[in-house]
Specification:
Radius of gyration: 22 Å
CATH architecture of the largest domain: Alpha Horseshoe
Helix content: 25-40%
Oligomer: single chain
Number of helices: 8
Structural class: alpha+beta
Distance between the termini: 61 Å
CATH superfamily of the largest domain: Tetratricopeptide repeat domain
Shape: elongated
Strand content: 15-25%
Number of strands: 10
Largest sheet: 8 strands, antiparallel
Strand order of the largest sheet: 1-2-3-6-7-8-9-10
Order of helices and strands: HHHHHHHHEEEEEEEEEE
CATH class of the largest domain: Mainly Alpha
CATH topology of the largest domain: Serine Threonine Protein Phosphatase 5, Tetratricopeptide repeat
Length: about 230
């Protein structure tokens, strides 16, 4: 194989694996942080990434990976930081390294926040793309998690899942209700249910919904839907 063919093959492999072609050696503190990260020593990883950010607050690598550390801790119900702090780190990382926008949409370390409005916004998606990427949750009052979830697909369909208890024996059920939707305006959606949940006082199949970033309101529901739920309430 000629040198040029070897070069092209290597180049295609790197692109296919999404390995940065201009990757630079890690700083000493970032290297210590990532070593601790791979050992799942989150406190040490946090400490060293913070050291990197003391030297360079705009370091995209340290910002992005510290966001990953915090997200993992949040998923384990270790409330050492707020989601908003994670989004600030991701926003700074994406500002100084654009490739992180695509990465954060599929990074398993960020899976807890992948379906939130703010993460998708930082990743550069359009409002309607964000709307269909978000999973919308009702309140989470106890051990059974959200009392409702609704997901909108880009093909104009939606599916609503509710938590209910069978009257005869109290068995937990999760009935599903599907339908179609269309945009009335940038923030107003018309929903049409195939079958309306019996728990709703009004059995009208067509209902309007209004959304504003991470909040969704649907006519007939006495609660709001949000882009995340209280994972640790129980």
């Amino acid at each position: 194989m000629t040198p040029i063919r070897i070069y092209l093959l290597t180049l295609f492999l790197l692109i296919g694996l999404e390995i940065p072609l201009n990757s630079e050696p890690l700083s000493e503190t970032n290297q210590k942080a990532i070593d601790a990260f791979y050992k799942k020593n989150w406190s040490q990883a946090e400490m060293w990434f913070k050291e990197s950010l003391k030297k360079n607050p705009n370091d995209p690598y340290a910002n992005y990976n510290l966001a990953c550390v915090y997200t993992i801790q949040l998923s384990q119900c270790e409330e050492l930081t707020e989601e908003q702090d994670v989004f600030q780190l991701l926003n700074k990382a994406a500002t100084y390294k654009k490739t992180y926008k695509r990465l954060m949409l599929k990074d398993k370390d960020l899976s807890l926040l992948r379906n939130t409005y703010r993460l998708n916004e930082i990743a550069g998606l359009s409002p309607k793309e964000i709307f269909t990427n978000v999973i919308w949750y009702g309140p989470s009052p106890g051990a059974y998690g959200p009392i409702a979830e609704i997901k909108f697909d880009s093909d104009g369909s939606f599916e609503l899942s509710l938590v209910a208890f069978r009257e005869s024996d109290g068995t937990l059920e999760k009935p599903k209700y599907s339908g179609k939707y269309q945009w009335i305006s940038e923030k107003v959606i018309q929903l049409e249910f195939q079958k309306v949940p019996s728990s709703l006082p009004n059995q009208t199949k067509k209902r309007q919904a209004r959304w504003n970033q991470n909040i969704l309101e649907i006519d007939g529901f006495d609660y709001q839907f949000q882009d995340s739920h209280d994972r640790c309430s129980a």
